[in-house]
Design brief:
Layout lengths: L3 H7 L4 E6 L5 H15 L6 E3 L8 H14 L4 E6 L5 H13 L4 E5 L19 H11 L3 E6 L10 H14 L2 E6 L3 H13 L6 E6 L4 H11 L5 H9 L4 H21 L4 E5 L4 H10 L5
Parallel strand pairs: 1-2, 1-8, 2-3, 3-4, 4-5, 5-6, 6-7, 7-8
């Protein structure tokens, strides 16, 4: 398999990658079935596959990763979290991926459930860096970690967050950021890493918001701020689902254009399994030309 971090680092043109969710219901499974062939036609550099809070989609994530590897031309990256897992369980999962030929991992601590106020179940490994270290002992993985341009919500301050990210990136191969809406946040993060001696690829994560309510909850969990102008644009379109989606796509394209113009190595789109909005972002950026 291809090592995704090496592809991103060596690419002579901006990369375009996507995140997908494993289906949790017959309806979401049908949606994914429709989306996959459409998204494959975009020839994304890779797709990351999420891992539900506390491992709630453990088998679904594994099955989708293997399906994408075997049945499509897209390179998969498997999310894996420390939350609610013992060390031996994580070793088993990592070895299982290696046995199936999957070598690209996104190592995470994990987020609490998007819906409700349930707390994140602790695992035997406390932090994502512990998972990176563990994966290195299991096999020759290409490992990505998460970055928070505005700082992790659990970090006491931005300086502490940056130092922790630098430690993760000393061991990992690349980072993918949480979503954000102001390009300066991303470039400040990159500059901070450079000052700390880190020059590994950091892909900016971009999302086209399709619901104000969902966006607010996701922002709360991720530590991202919703700028007033973004909230106002979405609220003005809130009378129609399609209108909100159209505005969300505009916001994502505008941000992505600025990121690429200022030197970001690519764009990682949080698709929420929405094929149509992802295609519009791709085409709006002219990446297929």
């Amino acid at each position: 398999m291809a090592k995704i971090a090496e592809i991103v680092a060596s690419s002579k043109r901006p990369t375009f990658s996507i995140e997908l969710w494993p289906p949790r219901s017959p309806e979401s499974e049908a949606k994914l079935e429709l989306a996959l062939p459409v998204l494959e036609q975009l020839h994304p550099t890779f797709t990351s596959i999420t891992y539900g809070a506390g491992g709630s989609t453990r088998e679904r994530t594994h099955d989708l990763v293997l399906r994408i590897r075997r049945e499509t031309s897209i390179e998969p990256m498997a999310h894996l979290t420390t939350a609610a897992h013992t060390k031996s369980e994580l070793v088993y999962i990592l070895k299982r991926y290696l046995g199936a030929g999957v070598e690209n991992i996104l190592a995470l601590r994990g987020d609490p459930p998007l819906n409700g106020d349930a707390k994140l179940a602790e695992g035997e490994l406390a932090h994502a860096i512990d998972l990176v270290q563990l994966a290195r002992t299991v096999g020759d993985f290409s490992i990505a970690v998460a970055a928070h341009p505005e700082g992790h919500p659990d970090s006491p301050d931005l300086e502490t967050d940056r130092k922790m990210l630098a430690k993760k990136l000393e061991l990992a191969d690349m980072a993918i950021t949480q979503f954000f809406f102001l390009a300066d946040f991303y470039f400040r993060l990159v500059d901070d890493m450079d000052r700390l001696g880190i020059s590994k690829p950091i892909l900016p994560g971009v999302m086209a918001p399709v619901s104000v309510k969902t966006l607010e909850r996701m922002a709360q969990l991720s530590g991202s701020k919703i700028p007033d102008q973004v909230r106002e644009r979405l609220n003005r379109a809130s009378g129609s689902v399609e209108a909100v989606k159209a505005v969300g796509v505009e916001i994502a394209i505008e941000l992505s254009e600025e990121l690429l113009k200022r030197g970001a190595p690519g764009i990682h789109v949080y698709t929420m399994n929405e094929a149509s909005t992802t295609v519009q972002i791709y085409e709006g950026l002219g990446l297929g030309r």
